[in-house]
Recover the amino acids of this structure.
């Protein structure tokens, strides 16, 4: 049962409670319908001898008197005691009387104890609500941030597939945990913190567990999001506790999952309430600084939003090694599917490659649930084994789910991305002085890019010629040029390319003196402190006239336009190569630059 439901149930208890009290009060009042009579009337009745018996308390007299209608019946009555010497009067008229100590238990219970309890209850309930909505407001719930300790983690690298690059980086860590002496002898120390970065569901948590499983050391994990509901000061205590426990049990691994919940840059969106997170974060920084990785404690963390992390966390000596856990390409998806298919006992004849083809853009978690869904469907349809059609139906379901969450690129977009990336690559390969193309991929990378073309310079460069800069601009524009040529339409996918190209062109004109019209003049102004500009001309440029500004803009524009035309022309000449490579790229999702070079060479010898 989750918290939300729990609250709903308890508000019903309160409502029913109030209702019951009201009914009871009503009931009591009507059954004990006691007539209250004035004291004077009581004395009069007493004198008449109509009073049968009474009991006296400090403040009132209760009793019964002869009924006015039928003399053999008694009517209960009550009156407020006015005269303190009632007993004399009673003696005089010989009425049976007794004194009782007033028991106010039931009256008190219903008149104020229960209502007060109810109010307290409602108050608690509201507070809980408030603190759930506004973490840190007041935490009454039991604190959730627990250090989870696992002695023998039952996960190995065999369970994690398709993230070979990340695994390769982590192998060293495992070796260190297994034979720390080997490293210490050489005086080598490991990086203090390893940050696993990658989109959700790519297997970051799984990888961290696998590191623990492979190195057979205890695994202390804690999740950043669990700190959110803590009392101020608790989080910091937890962190201290975590490090202390770990140090005492070295060699071991500390893993902080969902680091972004905890490590968000301080002073962000700050209307109070963030004290707790800040304190916890500070404590973490303190612990990291005062800790020596050579004691055999490896600190790992995972996040899918590295950009929101406090820069202090990423400084050298803290999480200074980042391991990218990226979305799998087709080969990776095949490997991941195989890991999960292995768990199915009754598996029909499944073509894993075909399955991988149907699932572009999916991550490990999606593929795991795909396999699970297919198994469930087989069971639901009373199949003996899990068949191909179960998988096909499962793919459809998962895709529908992911599309709703906007996490999947549709086939049309994939095609655009493929041509766009090939546009960059082909232009780059055809122009002199551009960096060689290493690989081209349409697997979405990291968080923003839909695909990318990796160009690696052959050597470190300190100078660039005008030809090279122009070539760079052309290849940046090649993506959009390819889109325009093939689809007769352009997309928003190029905005980053345009920004970079424009930047280079502007620098050429204003800094490097590479434009005839603008001349060999340095136009760039040094950046000025913001406060000096306030109220002044905000667009403070360098020391040049409006006329020059116009010329600069014109020249930048000309460079871009010219290079775009060049890119278009180049691509037009190589259209058949572009088409052929696009088919390959859409199929494989990732191709090497050498493949493209080979293709160009082939076409040249042919024609
Ligand atoms: P993350 O922490 O990156 O969000 P998880 O490690 O929690 O992702 O992955 C969730 C589940 O998805 C895992 O338990 C596993 O079943 C599956 N999974 C994710 N990535 C992989 C992978 N690379 N290989 C195999 N299974 C994976
Ligand atoms: Mg995770
Ligand atoms: Zn691009």
């Amino acid at each position: 049962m989750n918290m939300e439901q729990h609250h709903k149930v308890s508000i019903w208890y309160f409502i029913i409670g109030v209702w019951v009290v009201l009914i009871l009060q009503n009931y009591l009042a009507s059954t004990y319908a006691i007539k209250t009579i004035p004291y004077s009337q009581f004395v009069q009745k007493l004198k008449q001898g109509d009073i049968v018996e009474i009991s006296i308390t400090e403040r009132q007299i209760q009793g019964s008197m002869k009924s006015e209608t039928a003399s053999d019946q008694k009517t209960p009555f009550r009156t407020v005691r006015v005269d303190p010497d009632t007993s004399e009067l009673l003696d005089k008229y010989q009425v049976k009387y007794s004194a009782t100590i007033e028991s106010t238990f039931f009256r008190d219970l219903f008149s104020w104890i229960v209502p007060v309890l109810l109010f307290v209850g409602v108050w608690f309930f509201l507070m809980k609500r408030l603190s759930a909505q506004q973490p840190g407001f007041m935490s009454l719930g039991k604190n959730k941030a627990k250090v989870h300790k696992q002695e023998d983690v039952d996960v190995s690298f065999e369970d994690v597939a398709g993230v070979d690059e990340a695994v390769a980086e982590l192998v060293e860590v495992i070796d260190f945990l297994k034979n720390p002496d080997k490293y210490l002898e050489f005086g080598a120390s490991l990086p203090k913190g390893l940050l696993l970065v990658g989109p959700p569901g790519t297997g970051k948590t799984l990888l961290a567990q696998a590191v623990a499983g492979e190195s057979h050391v205890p695994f202390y994990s804690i999740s950043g999001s669990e700190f959110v509901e803590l009392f101020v000061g608790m989080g910091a205590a937890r962190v201290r506790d975590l490090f202390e426990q770990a140090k005492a049990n070295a060699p071991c691994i500390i893993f902080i999952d969902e680091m972004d919940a905890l490590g968000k840059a301080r002073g962000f969106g700050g209307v109070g309430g963030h004290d707790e997170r800040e304190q916890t974060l500070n404590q973490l920084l303190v612990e990291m600084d005062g800790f020596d990785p050579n004691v055999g404690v490896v600190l790992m963390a995972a996040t899918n939003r590295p950009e929101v992390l406090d820069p202090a966390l990423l400084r050298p000596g803290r999480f200074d090694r980042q391991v990218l856990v990226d979305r799998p390409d087709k080969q990776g998806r095949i490997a991941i599917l195989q890991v999960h298919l292995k768990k199915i006992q009754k598996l029909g004849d499944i073509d894993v490659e075909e399955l991988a083809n149907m699932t572009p853009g999916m991550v490990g978690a999606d593929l795991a649930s795909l396999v699970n869904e297919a198994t469930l469907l087989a069971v639901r349809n009373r199949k003996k084994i899990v068949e191909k059609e179960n998988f096909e139906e499962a793919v459809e379901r998962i895709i529908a789910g992911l599309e709703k969450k906007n996490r999947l690129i549709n086939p049309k977009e994939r095609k655009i991305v493929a041509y766009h990336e090939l546009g960059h690559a082909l232009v780059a390969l055809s122009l002199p002085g551009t960096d060689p193309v290493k690989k081209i991929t349409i697997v979405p990378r990291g968080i923003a890019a839909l695909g990318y073309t990796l160009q690696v310079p052959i050597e470190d460069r300190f100078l660039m010629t005008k030809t090279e800069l122009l070539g760079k601009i052309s290849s940046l524009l090649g993506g959009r040029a390819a889109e325009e040529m093939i689809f007769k339409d352009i997309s928003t996918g190029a905005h980053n390319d345009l920004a970079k190209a424009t930047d280079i062109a502007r620098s050429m004109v204003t800094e490097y003196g590479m434009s005839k019209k603008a001349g060999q003049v340095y136009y760039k102004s040094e950046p000025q402190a913001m406060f000096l500009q306030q109220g002044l001309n905000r667009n403070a440029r360098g020391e040049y006239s409006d006329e020059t500004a116009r010329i600069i803009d014109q020249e930048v524009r000309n460079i871009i336009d010219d290079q775009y035309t060049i890119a278009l022309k180049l691509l037009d000449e190589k259209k058949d190569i572009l088409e052929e490579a696009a088919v390959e790229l859409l199929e494989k999702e990732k191709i090497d630059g050498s493949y493209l070079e080979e293709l160009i060479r082939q076409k040249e010898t042919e024609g």
Summary: The first strand starts at residue 35 and ends at 36.
